[in-house]
Structures are given as structure tokens and as C-alpha cells.
Design goal:
The structure holds 2 protein chains of 2 kinds. Chain A is an all-beta fold. Chain A has no helices and 11 strands. In chain A, 0% of the residues lie in helices and 43% in strands. In chain B, strands 2, 4, 5, 9, 10 and 11 form a 6-stranded mixed β-sheet that branches. A 5-stranded antiparallel β-sheet of chain B has the order 1-3-8-7-6, with no helix packed on it. The chains are: A mainly beta, B mainly beta.
């Protein structure tokens, strides 16, 4: 089983609050990703990182930010949560860049609800 | 238009049935094709991977790619209740650009 962990699993929070979604992996993977998944919709890449101090925006524009200070840790932050941020957030990692035959290992996700 | 189209289902079948799940795509640059399985309240996990056209078999699962039709399939033989999950197709182009393009997923329920 892949060793990639996300906390919290579920979060209900009020509008305007700052939140950080945690993601950690113990596989030593350089590449890490954040996807957003809404019911009936495809996964959309919102952030990725090639390694420490590397962060890039994905295909789907997001008001969230990420940081990569340590290889194993890739937190996602929302400075001021809004109801439009309600979604499931999935963290993933891979040993090589995605594309080709590289497998992405996913965490269990954080289901965020902003009220 | 989405690059990858997948019927969201839900698809309900009796135990032991043969299940066919499909995706169509529009980007002819896609060369790598994957199927991920996602159980409820879990993250996706890689089930099958295929490069270019052809078939690949792994136990009860067979993945097929028809690049000429831009159509991929996942067949599940002798389906079991434990196969109940959402199945997502994903694909990428040579060079990848660090990008996997996912379908919306098909929700499958195998009933006793």
C-alpha cells in the first residue's frame, strides 16, 4: 500500500478562515501533486512540485498556494476559504514525472466543506 | 469539448457478469493509457496500464486500446462485489509534460 497520507480527512469550516491541508509521503518521491475532484467531474491538477523549493500551477486555476520545504511534505493553503472551495482535494506523488508509464500514488483525500 | 469522455454511470451488474468500461478521447498525441480504481472515500489506485494500441490482461482484468478509433476499454470478468468502485481512465502523451488527463470516472456496483 502506498505511504502517502493526508490530514484531515474531512473538514467543515466557516467562510473567511485560513486552512492548510497536509500531505506527507514516505516513499522519497521527488514529484508531488494536488488534484481537485468534484462529484461527476474529472480530476483536475491544481499544483505540482518537482522537488524541494519547486512549485508550479496546474491546469485548473486555484486560489490555493502550496509549498515544498521538505521532500516528504507538500501542504496546500487557502488564505480565506469560500464556499466555492468546497471540494475533495487529492494529494499524489510519483517517482518520476507523470506521463509515460509512471504511476501516481494517491492519498485518501481531504473532503473540504466551506459553509 | 473534454479531451477524455467517460460515461459516469452508475452501472449496476449482477455478480459474475462481464463488465465493459469505456473512454473515448480526442487528443491523438495520447500514447499511455491507464485505469485507476477508486473505492468510496479513498484515493485512486492504478489498476492497469497500456502503452499504445493493443490488449493487456491481468487476472480478471483486460485493458484494450484502439488508437485508430481513439477508444479504450476495461473488461472485468467474473465481477465480484469487491469490484464495486469508481473506475477512472487516464492518459498522457509522450513526454507527458507531467500531465495525466482523467475521465470523470464510471461508478460500478456489482450486486449479489
Amino acid at each position: 500500500e502506498a505511504d502517502i497520507y493526508q490530514t484531515p480527512r474531512y473538514l467543515v469550516i466557516g467562510t473567511g478562515k485560513k486552512i492548510t491541508l497536509e500531505c506527507s509521503q514516505t516513499m522519497g518521491h521527488d514529484k508531488m501533486y494536488w488534484y481537485q475532484q468534484d462529484p461527476g467531474m474529472e480530476l483536475h491538477l491544481i499544483h505540482y512540485s518537482y522537488g524541494v523549493n519547486s512549485t508550479e500551477k496546474g491546469d485548473l486555476s486555484s486560489e490555493s498556494t502550496v509549498s515544498r520545504i521538505r521532500t516528504e511534505h507538500f501542504p496546500l493553503t487557502l488564505e480565506s476559504a469560500r464556499p466555492s472551495h468546497t471540494s475533495q482535494y487529492l494529494c499524489a506523488s510519483s517517482p518520476l514525472p507523470l506521463g509515460g508509464n509512471t504511476e501516481a500514488f494517491f492519498g485518501q483525500g481531504t473532503r473540504l466543506t466551506v459553509v | 469539448q473534454k479531451e477524455v469522455e467517460q460515461d459516469p454511470g452508475p452501472l449496476s451488474v449482477p455478480e459474475g457478469a462481464i463488465v465493459s468500461l469505456n473512454c473515448t478521447y480526442s487528443n491523438s498525441a495520447f500514447q499511455y493509457f491507464m485505469w485507476y480504481r477508486q473505492y468510496s472515500r479513498k484515493g485512486p489506485e492504478l489498476l492497469m496500464y497500456t502503452y499504445s494500441s493493443g490488449n493487456k490482461e491481468d487476472g480478471r482484468f483486460t485493458a484494450q486500446v484502439d488508437k485508430s478509433s481513439k477508444y479504450i476499454s476495461l473488461f472485468i470478468r467474473d465481477s465480484q462485489p469487491s469490484d464495486s468502485a469508481t473506475y477512472l481512465c487516464a492518459m498522457s502523451a509522450t513526454g507527458g509534460g507531467n500531465k495525466l488527463t482523467f475521465g470523470t470516472g464510471t461508478q460500478l456496483k456489482v450486486e449479489l
